[in-house]
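User: quick one
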Amino acid sequence: ETGVTQSPTHLIKTRGQQVTLRCSSQSGHNTVSWYQQALGQGPQFIFQYYREEENGRGNFPPRFSGLQFPNYSSELNVNALELDDSALYLCASSLPQITDYGYTFGSGTRLTVV
Amino acid sequence: DQQVKQNSPSLSVQEGRISILNCDYTNSMFDYFLWYKKYPAEGPTFLISISSIKDKNEDGRFTVFLNKSAKHLSLHIVPSQPGDSAVYFCAASDVRSGGSNYKLTFGKGTLLTVNP
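Assistant: Done. Structure below.
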């Protein structure tokens, strides 16, 4: 059973650029969520995808967008990057219903905006 | 407005002793609580959870206690081991109204250091 895989692991972008982060969900999981973890903070919910549709969104502007594909993998796109977007971006997969195991998180993509 | 608070940024305990990590929440709609452990350069790893219909859940060395009236939960690790040294996050979710979307609201985390 494979876990959640994220790519790339590290990324440096310039302010104003666009970035795409990728996530492969754990086998059997059809729900993918994205979280942003700024330095010294807990992860913050960006949005969730279920059956290829956005299924809930946190307090993030529209320049944060996503996709889920038929194989349940997902992308997070951020346009017009700002310095404050520098953070660890975590992808988490799960089954749609509550389980005793919560989410399975990937190791994250460390994004630095300069 | 921080809905999940972990007021202790760090905690240091001796190997073999008990570690107690605390978490407070303000949103009375939260009905499912989880603890995650995070090592550097890794994603959070699920540790243990508790539903609001319970006040205690045990899994080996880990026990989570929930006090709904105080909106407080705690994680007890007994006995603590050096390998337990990590950042521990408390997270909460509102399952009943979320349908298939149970987003997690996290605290800022507590760095636990277990000294040999």
